[in-house]
Amino acid sequence: MAGIFAKIAAGEIPSYKCAESDKFYAFLDINPLVKGHTLVIPRREVDYIFDLDDDELAEMVVFAKHVAAAIKKAFPCRKVGMAVLGLEVPHAHIHLIPMQTEKDMNFANPKLKLADDEMAAVAARIRENFEAEGK
Ligand code: 5GP
C-alpha cells in the first residue's frame, strides 16, 4: 500500500505543490521550520535515500538544486540549506530550508503554524519562480 508521500505525489492527498517533474515532486512541509521549508521526493517510493539508484539520487539532487533556486528567489535568504532525516516518514525526502542563520536548520525548533491561504501563497511564489526557470 502506498505511503503518505507517494499519495501526495500522485495527487491522492492534497499538498502545497512547489514543483514537479516526471520523476520528482516538491511540496511545502506541513510543519515548516521557516517560511518556504520545502520537501523534495522521488515519485518512486523508497524509504532510505541512500537506497536510491545512483542515477536517481543524482537526478533528485539536481532537481532539488532548481527548487532551491526558486525558493531563494521567492524568499531571499543567505543560502538554502539541505537536510535529510527521514526518521518520521519512510519515503526518501530532502528538506530545503531558506536560512538566515544556522539556527534555521535546527529541527528541534518550534514549527510555524501558517494558515491555509498563507501556505498556498508561499507555494505559489516558489512554483512561479520554478516555472519561470523552465526546468
Ligand atoms: P523526517 O522524516 O524527515 O524526520 O520528517 C518528515 C517531515 O515531513 C516533517 O518535517 C513533517 O512536518 C513532514 N510531514 C509529515 N507528514 C506530512 C504530510 O502529510 N504533509 C506534508 N506536507 N508534510 C508532512
From TrEMBL:
Pfam families: HIT (PF01230). The active site is at 93 (tele-amp-histidine intermediate). Residues 4-107 form the HIT domain. InterPro entries: Histidine_triad_HIT, HIT-like, HIT-like_sf. Gene3D superfamilies: HIT-like (3.30.428.10). It comes from the Bacteria. One of its GO terms (molecular function) is catalytic activity. GO terms for biological process: nucleotide metabolic process. A motif (Histidine triad motif) lies at residues 91-95. This is HIT family protein.
